[in-house]
Design a protein that fits this description.
The chain is α+β, with helices and mostly antiparallel strands. The chain has helices at about 40-55, 85-95, 100-105, 150-170, 200, 210-220, 220-235, and strands spanning about 25-35, 65-70, 75-80, 110-120, 135-145, 175-180, 190-195, 235-245.
Length: about 260
């Protein structure tokens, strides 16, 4: 799903599949930290101390760390596994034992931090049955839509058709789409994440390309209409590339 087309450049790490019932919505929490260059070493050391504290207290939730390779390259993002909303209540309780480490060893080195929830949208995504380990790189793009529910409905209807076409044609290029929720004023509406094995992989266009794949399934007229419906509702997009940071990730013991 790599393309210079405005909406086809996003990628992020969510790994859930199958249809979701209304009472089984999976959400991902994302924290993005901005660090001054001079504080980078101390910040990373503080994050490792925080992870060590979590291990000592048996914290059972995974957090995957990503270093921003483009855009603000002194930024780090941490994303939880996709879990039900109720899991964040348990997470907040379990993390209290290590809040002191955050305040003493991490926060002094932050320029700022943002947080958002990302609702997994498997029906809009094209994913392998086995998500596998975190990829070395991901392409992340955020989309801001026109105000109103009509824009959201148009975007989701179009991306759902693309996902159906990708599955039907067994397109071997995978991506995930999520909805951004509770992210504050000016936040984007949707996020697209594309995994990459290397920079060479990132720079290689798929064959067939996404729109040719859609055209092969629906015909040119329908493919053009789907493409236009997305372009009509997207008002802004931004993208960056992240690399998986194993040293700063927290993987619960026994997982």
């Amino acid at each position: 799903m790599k393309s210079s087309t405005v909406w086809l450049a996003l990628a992020f790490a969510l790994s859930c599949s199958g249809a979701q019932a209304a009472d089984d919505v999976r959400v991902i929490r994302d924290f993005t930290d901005m660090v001054a260059p001079a504080d980078q070493q101390a910040y990373e050391a503080g994050t490792k101390s925080f992870n060590q504290c979590l291990h000592q207290h048996g914290f059972k939730y995974n957090w995957t760390a990503w270093s921003h390779e483009t855009g603000d390259t002194y930024s780090y993002s941490y994303v939880s596994d996709p879990v039900p909303w109720a899991s964040f209540d348990a997470m907040d309780t379990a993390i209290k034992a290590c809040l002191g480490v955050i305040r003493s060893d991490v926060n002094p080195h932050l320029k700022s931090e943002t947080s958002a929830f990302l609702q997994a949208m498997p029906e809009l995504s094209h994913q392998p049955k086995d998500a596998g380990p975190a990829p070395p790189l991901i392409e992340v793009t955020y989309f801001t839509l026109k105000p109103g529910h009509q824009a959201v409905e148009a975007f989701t209807a179009a991306t759902r058709k693309i996902a159906v076409a990708a599955a039907k044609s067994k397109w071997p290029h995978y991506y995930q789409i999520g909805r951004v929720v509770h992210a504050g004023d000016g936040a984007p509406d949707f996020i697209l994440v594309i995994p990459d094995k290397s920079w060479a992989d990132l720079g290689t266009e798929p064959d067939p390309g996404v729109w040719k794949m859609v055209e092969n399934v629906y015909g040119k007229s329908e493919a053009d209409a789907i493409r236009q419906s997305i372009n009509d509702v997207v008002t802004k997009q931004s993208s960056h590339v992240d690399s998986y940071n194993a040293e700063l990730s927290y993987i619960a013991s026994g997982k």
